[in-house]
Design goal:
Pfam family, one: Trans_reg_C
Oligomer: single chain
Protein name: DNA-binding transcriptional activator of the SARP family
InterPro entries: AfsR-DnrI-RedD_regulator, BTAD, OmpR/PhoB-type_DNA-bd, Sig_transdc_resp-reg_C-effctor, TPR-like_helical_dom_sf, WH-like_DNA-bd_sf
Keywords: DNA-binding, Transcription, Transcription regulation, Two-component regulatory system
Helix content: 55-70%
Organism: Streptomyces pini
Shape: elongated
Strand content: 5-15%
Low-confidence stretches: none
Radius of gyration: 23 Å
Length: 261
């Protein structure tokens, strides 16, 4: 069994430890095949992802040579496996990855499970989300972002990461742990200043910590940023949080309140 990690620089692990894939070209090619998520990818797609606008003159031969090297490397890691993980047919190339072998797929699965648990078991959801977020070692694919398809996949997984963080903060707020996440929430809001949900959660955490003035200042700064940078007004959800703070709405201090509507 192999384990593939792309939530950070590419890593391949066997029961005996981490395995190196030599050379940026071959590493990028493995990343592209993993980004394909079990689909057959055409030779043209692989060439574009690996070489971009400057492919070699003999691009078909060059691609096949790299594919052969990767196939041999994977076969050496799993000598008992038949057939090869790297499948070639008229539709293109496909890397076979079994359930549980790709960290990104495991991450998305765990986040979906946690969302389902959030209302009935927020403590369990929080633990699952912490574990899932700990899978991230850095940007998807590390310092080899690849071509258009890899970059698109990276954006999608990053969106899942932000969604997981929103769910985690919701779980912690529902458990009354606002002081414990306050510093992390503030840092996350600074890192993603236009993501309104983080602003809402920070405002609630500040209010519950006895910092109503800071909570309202956070709203005003968000309102100004949205207006100046995007030319839009705060969402109804964000405005509801501001109104709740101004009116000291008891929903803000309810342990199970998230203000999501």
């Amino acid at each position: 069994m192999l384990n593939f990690s792309i939530l950070g620089a590419l890593e391949i692990r066997t029961p005996g430890g981490q395995v190196e894939i030599p050379g940026d070209l071959q590493r990028t090619l493995v990343q592209v095949l993993l980004a394909g998520e079990g689909r057959h990818l055409s030779g043209e797609t692989l060439v574009e992802e690996v070489w971009g606008s400057a492919p070699p003159g003999n691009q078909t031969n060059a691609l096949q040579a790299h594919i052969s090297r990767i196939r041999r490397r994977l076969r050496a890691l799993e000598p008992e496996r038949r057939p090869s993980r790297l499948v070639t047919n008229p539709a293109g190339y496909r890397l076979v990855v079994e359930d549980g072998e790709l960290d990104a797929a495991n991450f998305v699965r765990d986040v979906q499970r946690a969302e389902e648990m959030l209302l009935s078991d927020p403590a369990g959801a929080s633990r699952l989300l912490r574990s899932a977020l700990a899978m991230w070692r850095g940007p998807v694919f590390g310092d080899l972002p690849g071509g258009p398809m890899c970059r698109m996949v990276a954006v999608r997984y990053e969106e899942h990461r932000l969604w997981a963080m929103e769910l985690y903060f919701d779980a912690e707020l529902s458990l009354g742990r606002h002081k414990g996440i306050l510093a992390q929430l503030r840092e996350t809001h600074i890192d993603h200043p236009l993501r309104e949900r983080f602003c809402e959660q920070l405002m609630v955490a500040l209010y519950r910590s006895g910092r109503q003035v800071d909570a309202l200042a956070t709203y005003r700064n968000m309102w100004k940023r949205l207006s100046e940078e995007l030319g839009v007004q705060p969402s109804p959800s964000l405005r509801r949080v501001e109104h709740a703070i101004l009116s000291h709405d008891p929903v803000l201090t309810a342990a199970d309140a998230t203000l999501r509507q």
